[in-house]
Amino acid sequence: MKTGAKESKIYLKVSVSIIFCVVIAILITSSILYVNFQSILMKHEYEINLEKMESEEEQRLQLANIALNTLYQIYNDISVTKLLTYEKISAVEESAAFLQLRHFLVTMPNVDSIYVYNVKNERIYNVTNENELIRPWNADYYTKSNFYDTSAAAMIEHCTEFTPFIVVPRYYQVNAKTTKCVYTYIMYDIFKNNKKRSAIMLNLESEYLFPKSRTGYPGTESLVVDGTGSVIYSNSSNFKVLDNVKEKFDYGKILNKKKAGYFLDEINGIKSVVIFTDTDKYGFRNVSLINYNDLLAQVKKLQSVTIGITLLIAGAGLIAAFICSYRLSNPIRVMSKDFTALLREKRRTETLTKNIKLKELLENNGFENSGERKSGADLLSLLGIPFKREQKLVLLCIKVDDYQYLLETSNSQLISAYKFAAVNILTELMQDNCIMYCLNMSLDKNLIFVSLTSNEAKEILNEHLIQMQHLVQEYFKISVSAALSDFEEDPDKLFYQYEQIEEALSGSIFWKESSIVHYSDIKMKEVQNYEYPESREKQLLECLTHGRAKEAEEVYLAIVTETYDYPVVIYNMVISRLIFMITNVVNLIMKNSSLHSLTSSLLLTNLLQECDSLEERNEKFKELFLQIAKDMENKKKDRLNQVIADINLLIEKEYKNPLLSIEMLAEEVGMSAAYICRIYKQYTGNTINETLLEKRMEHARVLLVESALSVNEISEKVGFTGSSYFYRVFKKVNGVTPNEYRRK
User: Are residues 137 and 99 in contact, defined by beta-carbon separation less than 8 angstroms?
Assistant: First the structure.
């Protein structure tokens, strides 16, 4: 083990050194990166935001094309053209034009309104979405002077100053408190020379071109700026639509660059990163303003993440170092482990061999296979128990109570643990007063050799045994009993003491839980003085065959109680004889009954198994007697049911015979007439005569309906000797005469 541990430490040191070199390299690299992180971060943020802004710009251009196509369709629509060009227009044409405008209004999302201006009659026709501006619609028109949207009226007045395909941001007064921003596309006839022209205006809400779910860095201010620096769109409270960004930051740095880029600038006293895109085809640029301090916070966060990753790598490396060192040293460790296991197995084998040899010597009174005999002192020397003449030797057997029940509810390993725990507790209690050695006799018993020096050895041992039983009961919830041989000063009487233990254990079925049995206290009558009570056995047999379970139990207890004062061989002989007798009774029941129960035979099989106590075995006999009584009752019912079935069969077969009587039926079934009358009435509820009469009446009713026989002939066919008697009986049973029954 020491060699394996040493090799493992060498491998561990090498692995840890490698890991530390890797960690130091990571820290140096991270420091260099941190020094140059400002430029790296700004470039990284620029690339991320530029990609997002270009995507938003492309999306805005696509939406603008859709809006322009819609405006072009409106401009070329026949109904709308009449509204746009005719000086005088009928109500029908005007209504058709408005319906068409409303159709265009609802087909596009986020459209605020559509205006149509006719220069000939100077009317402004208005179709509004009415989300915020609530006005009842009618076919009336507005003039430029009384139109509520003054900025639109101004655009119409100077329409030639606006490019038709470029969106124009503007405000108009919704009500006294609210001003609304809309984005307007205007279309007019560009080939005319005069300044006043008819025009169509498509007014869009900001959500159409600039959705609110715009992405970006947290805290980023997003702008769309035209070539003059005027704000087309803003999501920031610092910039409003139509503001000029030149007043807030150096917009010249953007104008001087044709391509996308970024720079640092002070905006409202806050150092910010300004990121901008290329100019689109309408001359607009997307601009993002990011707080530089927020970026530095991200730098610190990345720094923390870097340090965390470094520590994680270091930790993972150390774990890997331990694993590598463990695996590299594994062959040596396995070899050392195998060597330790071999030593342990050697000790276990030696102990097992020693115990087997000791057990054989005890059972053979000290004789070995070679014929040589060892003395008790030799056995004590083999066990390592020094024994002097002034000492006392006693054999003690610890037995687990209710072993069969514990074996069913737990397992043998757990029972062995309980058993050795009891031995260890006793050893701890008596370590100052004796020398002990434990021999495993069986799964539920341990034999202990105890050498005591005290003059009050018996009293001390009893006291410690009681204390041990109490502790085992308290901690393990089981009980143990103990058998003790005589206390001897001569070691050569060891074999005789073992015989005493064997004899005491043979009667363990008579013990109660937590018993302490001294061989010197066992007093038994001579075997020759016992006489088996055959008369009681016959009485028990009679009780069982007649199903008297309670009396059978009393007779059984009277038989076995007499054996308690004799050696256990008498008790076992009596139990075996009773089991043999009861087996014959059970076999008789099973042979003569067609509906017998197998429970009694199963209980009988259980009696042959070992029991831990008299109460357990007596309870099994009691259950068996009750089941035999139940089987006898079933047998009796089977016989009566068969008799009743035979009577019914005879009535069915012979009811036409006028000589059929109860005496004839009794003779057929082999019983007296009075007995069959009584049991038939008891089990069916009817008398035999009632059943016979009902059978004859049933057949008579069938013949009256289905045949042309006379009443006299029918009475003879169903077993009546005279027609007059048949008439009286039929009317009494059916309430009508045979002829009346036939006519019905």
Answer: no
Query: Is 71:185 a contact under the CB 8 Å cutoff?
Result: yes
Q: Show the tokens assigned to 555.
A: 């007779």
In this prediction, residue 137 carries a pLDDT of: 44
404 or 467, which is more confident: 467
CA angle 370, 374, 375 (to 5 degrees): 165
pLDDT value, residue 134: 40
HSE-CB at 597 with a 13 A cutoff on CA atoms is 16
Q: What is the DSSP string of 120-143?
A: TTTEEEEEE--SS------S--B-
CB proximity list for 459: less than 8 A, separation 6 or greater: none
Would the pLDDT of 127 be above 60? yes
**And the tokens for 689?**
């005569």
Mean pLDDT confidence for 57-71: 86
Amino acid letter for position 237: S
- Give the pair of three-digit tokens for residue 103: 């159709």
Entry pTM: 0.44
pLDDT at 299 over 70: no
136 burial via Cβ count (<10 Å: 0-12, 13-18, 19+) = exposed
- Please classify residue 214 by burial: count the beta carbons closer than 10 Å to its beta carbon, then call 0-12 exposed, 13-18 middle and 19+ buried: middle
Q: Determine contact, residues 741/734, Cβ cutoff 8 Å.
A: yes
- Phi, psi (5° rounding) for residue 487? -85, 120
pLDDT of 715: 84
Closest CA to 462 of 523, 510, 521: 521
